[in-house]
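Students often ask what a holo structure prediction actually looks like on paper. The answer is less mysterious than it sounds. You provide the chain, you provide the ligand, and the output is a string of discrete structure tokens encoding the 3D arrangement of the protein together with pyridoxal-5'-phosphate.
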Amino acid sequence: MKISITKSFLPSQKEYNRYLSKIWKNGWLTNNGPLLKELEERLKKYLGVKHLFVVSNGTIALQIAARALGMKNEVITTPFSFVATTSSVVWENCKPIFADISPDTLTINPDKIVEKITPRTTGIVGVHVYGNPCDVEKIKKISKKYNLPVIYDAAHAFGVKYKGKSILNYGDISTLSFHATKLFHTVEGGAIVTNDDELARKISLMRNFGQETPEKCTAVGINGKNSEFHAAMGLCVLDKVGSIIKKRKVLCDFYDKLLAKKDVVVRPKIRIGTSYNYSYYPIVLPSEKILLNLQQALNKRDIFPRRYFFPSLNKLCYIKNQSAPVSEDISRRVLCLPLYYDLSKSDIRKITDVICESL
Ligand SMILES: *Cc1c(COP(=O)(O)O)cnc(C)c1O
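The corresponding structure tokens follow.
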């Protein structure tokens, strides 16, 4: 049996069908329908945030966020993330300026942000990578001092709390991805979160072509809407998200236990004060050569970890001459091990046995 990096959580077909019956009864398929509204209300409550807009994916969430905050010219961001964090900034006609990461938490290093600020800087985009919060307090101070808006790409951080409140309350806007591979998903989807009423109004317009009503257009917008079918999946998965996170904790604890004696396997440090969501299980190895050998050994046994995140984003083909030595080094040595709801302890034993033999 093949073990992949992830496997999407699927609710029972019976539960999904219960919502589908509502769609057939309502005859309402998309455009801010009743199920989408229900999902938004329940997400706001579950996550503890003021405004939340479900959109078609996590990338459009980032693009709308950058627009709503007037980002242009230079935007300071992290080189250690999924490619969409950078591509969305470039797509919005901004130049990403990479501030390197901290080697222990793998999140953007606030001191490096300050070094990169110029008169052309219009904002900061951080990532709570693997669900590990950025240094939100230091970044808040920088944001105030230099008057720069902050977006947090929280695609990995669903349900994460920092010092007792949702991590999504930090920064001007946080974005989420509800892609099928994420901890909470709507097949495809995402959300934009803010506590600012004025920003919320802008975002809500931008998501819907800039139209306030069908005959009144008050801004330039795009189609960022999501459908009732996606909302239905979200409502089913949301019912289970508590047990999904609990199960992932059990699995991560088991990995920890079986890898405890392998001190060549280093784990990123979760920021103190974090209530974590166990969204990924990254390990940092001593060298790329060791990583490649391990990956090959695992593949031979039908186990497929992923090089999240490789390459470092400052090395993308459309980025010219920017260096980020810590991110480049870590991205060559980091491997995410399989982690998903249906993974069993015996699967983990099989995976860690290969790791212990190979290292
Ligand atoms: C998944 C992901 C995205 C993109 O989300 P989509 O919903 O796939 O568009 C953006 N940033 C990060 C860090 C991600 O992991």
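The mean pLDDT is 97.
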